[in-house]
């Protein structure tokens, strides 16, 4: 009933191993997830990340979902990671989320990444601004 409808989902992600963040979100996914099935048909997606480690919110013990805490939205196309990048994607995801090594292999997991086309930074009660992708 929800096929073709936009909806949110929580996917495990990493932008690189702990000491080598790239800013490119990598995901470990399965076609058994409706989100992934939809993305393979229409790869446009957005990813919103709350400010969980920023000085203001942490120092003032403010919930990351409070409007005073920044949120970054990345928009772009989700694509399968090409063979020459799979090893890096594996290191990126597995180093930050070791539990995935125990996930059932029968789900035929694979890696996707977001090719970022737009970045939107929202902070302080709705103020927002576009950030150049190059930055």
From TrEMBL:
GO (cellular component) term, any one: extracellular space
Keyword tags: Glycoprotein, Secreted, Signal
Alphabetized Pfam families for the sequence: CREG_beta-barrel (PF13883)
Domain of life: Eukaryota
Presence of keyword DNA repair: no
Residue ranges occupied by any CREG-like beta-barrel domain in the UniProt entry: 2-135
Transmembrane residue ranges: none
Intracellular or extracellular location(s): Secreted
InterPro entries in UniProt: CREG_beta-barrel, Split_barrel_FMN-bd
Protein family (similarity comment): Belongs to the CREG family.
Protein's name according to its UniProt entry: CREG2 protein
């Amino acid at each position: 009933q929800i096929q073709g409808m936009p909806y949110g989902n929580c996917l495990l992600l990493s932008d690189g191993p702990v000491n080598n963040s790239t800013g490119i979100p990598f995901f470990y996914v399965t076609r058994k997830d409706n989100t992934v099935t939809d993305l393979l048909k229409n790869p446009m997606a957005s990813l919103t990340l709350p400010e969980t480690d920023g000085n203001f919110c942490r120092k003032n013990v403010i919930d990351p979902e409070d409007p005073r805490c920044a949120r970054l939205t990345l928009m772009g196309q989700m694509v399968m990671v090409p063979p020459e990048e799979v090893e890096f994607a594996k290191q990126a995801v597995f180093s930050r989320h070791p539990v995935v090594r125990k996930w059932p292999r029968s789900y035929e997991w694979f890696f996707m990444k977001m090719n970022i086309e737009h970045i939107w930074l929202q902070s302080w009660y709705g103020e927002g601004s576009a950030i150049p992708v190059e930055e």
